[in-house]
């Protein structure tokens, strides 16, 4: 396909946990002309700081800003070249990011970790979304808010997560006050990358609402912050900035960023966004009642509603948070694909790996074949999918996973199956919680890397008792960003029109089997019992084990 055939295109850039991906898409119909991936040199920094080797405590997860810039330098030019299009055909660029991935910077946006005097200070580096070391601060944030009757707390299901901006900011203050004072800005990576592209600081309404506790145009009060810690009273000043709507133009590409990307200076740059929320556009799910589950290392669930409802344990409900004019609800599971990867790395005998290699398939494919051959419930197991904590609906990252029912006859594929089922049960818990709160869910749309496993997807349909629509693009967030870029560039009047033209889905790709669904209802009842016992006060065993491990590894 030649450049002249392609016509106008938009570029979407998706910054993930381990890599960044750029997609070149036709603005006429969303055809993906090419994509390119750049794997981060430093990946997720969880054990020690680059260069200095300073060891990180338990539950830390950081990233390097240079890795994000390298995506602009490598993935964007590579995608352009592969698509065979010229810079003149690019009408706009939009990005999305994991959230809350957040960093301290100077007033001009320089990350503190890039200053020589701070490179060996862990708190100078961006805290990745799965940094869970601020749980103690999150607990205090929630307790004080509940005591004071803060009006914003119910909008977040009654709990603010340790993954979000205020918990991580309070941890910075209390563990490295010098760096806290040096940080002029505390900014989401989603907004920082836009700063690098167009030379101007912006703040998007999505991350501000879901991760930065902005409700009805206001952040938590100075009095509330002072009640957490007197030195925290002016924390809002590090984030305060006018908010920009999703799909709006943030600015034009700077000369420096044009040199990085191979694009024209002045190319339209859209306001930043979150990977999950932007995917609603590529999944043609920008209306009310359409839940999108972006299933990868973790899973994020987003759905629009026409009315404001307060649902227990949600990550937040934000006006215009996904689509203008609607209330956007967010929930999520902190570990999904990560759990399966952990098990294949640590729980599978060498003989299984050797057999998979002999057959030329992955260990996941081998385990899936073995697990899929079993009847529902034959393993006698139920697992809790909390290996990376519980984001929804318990909002508690001091919890960890468990597998119950193990016997001497239990096989690896049976544990693997139980883990897959546990993640499906976790999603069902989220769906049922929203529905009970009065948020209609009429369609379940799946996106992300886990769609490649057809047995896993069928399991979700059976557990949920719902047909599943699938996003047919392998780069859902990047395509969603490209759709927002088309809106920012004025190609479409709004996200509804752009999504209808450029989105890619297959409806009813998976339909529940009634017999399996009945069998899963029995297993789910056990999961629900264990979920509430260990997660809602029946037992503090998992919390105590986490406390013991944290103390032992200090």
TrEMBL record:
Residues 292-489 form the Carbohydrate kinase FGGY C-terminal domain. It catalyses: L-ribulose + ATP = L-ribulose 5-phosphate + ADP + H(+). Its EC number is 2.7.1.16. The keyword Transferase applies. Gene3D superfamilies: 3.30.420.40. Residues 10-280 form the Carbohydrate kinase FGGY N-terminal domain. Pathway: Carbohydrate degradation; L-arabinose degradation via L-ribulose; D-xylulose 5-phosphate from L-arabinose (bacterial route): step 2/3. It comes from the Bacteria. Keywords: Arabinose catabolism, ATP-binding, Carbohydrate metabolism, Kinase, Nucleotide-binding, Transferase. Belongs to the ribulokinase family. This is Ribulokinase. It comes from Glycomyces endophyticus. The gene is araB.
